[in-house]
Amino acid sequence: MLKEYRTVSEVVGPLMAVEGVEGVKFDELVDIELQTGERRRGQVLEIDGDKAMVQIFEGSSGINLEDTKVRFLGRPLSLDVSEDMIGRTFDGMGRVSDGGPELIPEKTLDINGQAINPIARDYPDEFIQTGISTIDHLNTLVRGQKLPVFSGSGLPHKELAAQIARQANVKNSGEGFAVVFAAIGITFEEAEFFLNDFKKTGAIDRSVIFVNLADDPAIERIATPRMALTAAEYLAFEKDMHVLVIMTDMTNYAEALREISAARREVPGRRGYPGYLYTNLATLYERAGRLEGSKGSITQIPILTMPEDDITHPIPDLTGYITEGQIILSRDLYNSGIQPPINILPSLSRLKDKGIGEGKTREDHAATMNQIFAAYAQGREAKELAVVLGEAALSEADKKYVQFTDKFEAEYVNQGNYTNRSIEDTLELGWKLLSILPKSELKRIKDDMLKKYLPKGE
Amino acid sequence: MSKGKIVSVSGPLVTAEGMETANIQDICRVGEIGLIGEIIEMRGDVASIQVYEETSMVGPGEPVVSTGEALSVELAPGMISQMFDGIQRPLDKFREMTKSNFLERGMQIDPLSREDEWEFTATIEPGTKVGPGDIVGTVPETSVIQHKIMIPNGVNGTIESIQSGTFKIEDTIYTVKTEDGIKDYTMLQKWPVRKGRPIATKINPVEPLVTGQRVIDTLFPVAKGGAAAVPGPFGAGKTVVQHQIAKWADVDIVVYVGCGERGNEMTDVINEFPELIDPNTGQSIMERTVLIANTSNMPVAAREASIYTGITIAEYFRDMGYSVAIMADSTSRWAEALREMSGRLEEMPGDEGYPAYLGSRIAEYYERAGKVIALGDEGREGSITAIGAVSPPGGDTSEPVTQNTLRVAKVFWSLDSSLSQRRHFPAINWLNSYSLYSNEMNKFIGEKLNVDWPTIVTRTKALLQTESELEEIVRLVGIESLSERDRLRMIVSRMIREDFLQQNAFDDVDTYTSQNKQLEMISTLLHFEDKAARGLELGSYYDELIDGTADVRERIGRMKYIPEEEISKYKELRQAITDTVQEIIEKGGMDSDA
Ligand SMILES: Nc1ncnc2c1ncn2[C@@H]1O[C@H](COP(=O)(O)OP(=O)(O)OP(=O)(O)O)[C@@H](O)[C@H]1O
Ligand SMILES: [Mg+2]
């Protein structure tokens, strides 16, 4: 029998102190029974002598110092896993929430997982075709990568994420493929959008879904992504599946961390987020990858909304420092009706180089990519100049760049959420657009490739 | 040895009582599972311990045993080509022993293999008087590195016996008659990581570290024995710069510390380095590389230790008389680890929550770099060049880690996100980066290449500087307001940026450029300016010159892809420039002496 304590001595925000405890461990899972009989779960954040500091996932409202009963469960917070998770929906703490039967677990895993031994990693280099030109050609996603979407409030990140889940899904249909979806503090409507899309396309039968909504307990959000990643690790590394993990919205996760940190009266870092936010986020994002000798993979697409569209805000900033690139949505493009409004200039996939080229996509991939980036950057600059000084002030070359840029946005970027382009189609389109420019400007493409691919007589 | 009991656990910080006989910096085994930790504070009999592994499910009452030893590294043959974690556990052995792809806790592994055998050749005779740092023999550790076995610190006497042969690192290979009698010595030494290894004296750096990266070698060179900082926002190219230097720098040994960064980046190194051939030795660059990996998801306290583990290994090779480069990516993550421990110790926070001693810790680290005369009777010269990435929050370099680093590092390669977003790589900003070694290094390079290198460099920098001023004017009043000569300057600067400074790390040819090729390339660009300027002087119109040189300029644009072996092609290219401009001038009907 586990010992029951009624010695809650203090409640601050989502934390409570329990005194006179014995044998309590750091990180231990806690069962809390309120005077009403309601049960909550907690986790030991700190243990000092006989005093334990417990974080309560469901929050502390209604906790009564005298009557609340606390039991320490002798294990960390864990998740029951089995292959039958696929097609099921769970709440933010990993409890079945779709009204279906309980899971018969194959095993129970600590949701914190363990760090991957760097030597055991297999470098991600397998091209994933998402059917989206700005990603496949310019910011290529590979299996085992972590590539976040930086969005802003009101921007269509959910449409983009659903499009990726849908289209990447099709291409890999031959192999074991699963989507793990973690809703972290998002609205009911947004969650429904995903669920409906998954249902419509049948993706639901390959998905494991964890949902913590905006009106669910905030502190649970610390557990939700870990639940999702634990399920993903099990499917990828024990069941050889290719798992795509979509986590939205990481901003809500970071806010839950901030709340705990404030309650603990820790020295706040930038904008009140704790100094360990980087390390904490890394323990999530670094769970993406491939392992040597294991067939499966975990590809992560975390989504976050940048507060005030500010990329230097700690959440996007620290995310960018950990992930292998970022896809950035632009309000300007969105306002001019471009879908998906991906701003390619600040977007980047760090792992693209080893996933593209001959044998993976096509030999002209890298060179055309570099050329498009350079040309688009130049065109945008010329357009800004034209705003100040008028079109007439532009050089002949710059006028061509402007023409390229406009067409590029209208035809290449603006493909809509339901066009699924093969990489070859994208490359052809890229060449067509590049041929707007004088050949002498195409410095980043070697001669032999220009000869082979550049459309003639335009 | 001292045995106590855990009182409290808060993340990586554990306190234990009953530790009165333990010392600060002692290594401990913490809890039932025996996690590795280090004492960082003592109050009465209570020790505060930073634990190098996750402390989940560890609690009060569990035992803590101090080993009585400070955190040390093992120094002997077997380090090169290895990847260690922050406390020198070899990660391949780790995987073998745990049979897991994940880092299990409480693993104790010898840093260096006790079984591997090495061919030791004695280089001194019995009867020789020896002191610390004297070399007693060598071991060919890899095809390029002769590992020199040195008399450990504090040992003085006469060699009593010594033999060549095949040995394991714990076998006795020589004995020394000391004041306290005859003592046995093996190839294995230990050294506490937080203490710099002793040297005879520091000397001034004189020679550049040639990295094969044009913007670095030509504009902002670092000296062998110098220190350089690479700050920049995420994605600006810090890691690629460090990888490029690790690959191509003309040093004997590279120690690469992945400190709180991505796991995949270490995998990348492990996969790629064995395939790459060092242009200086003709052998795989892995044969000279030691890797330390403490990735961002690995325990934060071991991250703090990792850069000390790295620099101590670097010092050991320096002591053998080698030039060593140590890369730390990223020192900001190390500083954050310091901050986290400091916060948990409830120390008084300084700037942005960092402890007040941040500046002195950073300075101490970079102070361990330098060019030195090593201990030992030969007066060997060795050097450590320290290159540290800095990851300022939001890219704002006014923050404490960047500022404290700039106080001690003499080279500043400022990575700029506006450049990286335009895919100008390496995104080293040519206007605000600097190297305080420039003067001496440029003189040295000039003598080596037998040209007036300082003038070439000054002229290149001046052009780029002028360009930024002219751009300002263009932005305000348009390009038409510039004189033809200035418009030419704009064109040439742009060519310098695109055709010289931009260098693609992922192109087989472009990834490395020898000093000779750098000279050829920059000379070709300046030659173009000279000829075109002469054309203007002789009455050609700017537009004529620009239109007429389109083809040669296109050739200049591709000149970076000329392989090292075909270096004579640059001369041909310069001739083509001369001829083309001459033609333009003649068409204009003017006489010319160009
Ligand atoms: N010299 C180069 N040549 C070609 N591409 C480069 C070069 N330098 C950087 N890049 C590109 O920029 C990307 C980001 O570079 P890198 O990973 O070095 O950034 P970083 O500054 O280390 O970022 P973080 O702080 O997030 O680790 C690379 O993945 C690569 O695509
Ligand atoms: Mg990096």
List the helices and strands and how they pair.
The complex is a heterodimer of chains A (about 450) and B (about 600).
Chain A: E1 4-5, E2 8-12, E3 15-18, E4 28-33, E5 39-48, E6 51-56, E7 69-76, E8 78-81, E9 88-91, E10 107-110, E11 121-122, H1 133-136, E12 149-151, H2 157-171, E13 177-186, H3 188-201, E14 207-213, H4 224-238, E15 242-248, H5 250-263, H6 277-285, E16 289-291, E17 297-305, H7 314-322, E18 325-328, H8 331-335, E19 348-349, H9 352-355, H10 365-389, H11 396-413, H12 423-434, H13 447-453
Parallel strand pairs in A: 9-14, 12-17, 12-18, 13-14, 13-15, 15-17
Antiparallel strand pairs in A: 1-7, 2-3, 3-6, 4-5, 4-7, 5-6, 8-10, 11-16, 16-17, 18-19
Chain B: E1 2-10, E2 13-17, E3 26-30, E4 35-43, E5 46-51, E6 63-70, E7 72-75, E8 83-84, H1 91-98, E9 118-122, E10 129-130, E11 135-140, E12 146-150, E13 157-162, E14 165-167, E15 174-178, E16 181-185, E17 189-192, E18 201-203, H2 214-219, E19 227-231, H3 238-248, E20 253-259, H4 263-272, E21 289-294, H5 300-319, E22 323-329, H6 331-344, H7 358-367, E23 370-373, E24 381-390, H8 400-408, E25 411-412, H9 417-421, E26 434-435, H10 438-449, H11 453-477, H12 484-501, H13 515-537, H14 542-548, H15 550-557, H16 569-587
Parallel strand pairs in B: 8-21, 19-24, 19-25, 20-21, 20-22, 22-24
Antiparallel strand pairs in B: 1-2, 1-6, 2-5, 3-4, 3-6, 4-5, 7-17, 9-11, 9-14, 10-13, 11-12, 13-15, 15-16, 18-23, 23-24, 25-26
Helix pairs in contact in B: 5-6, 7-8, 11-12, 12-13, 13-16, 15-16
Bound molecules: adenosine-5'-triphosphate and magnesium ion.
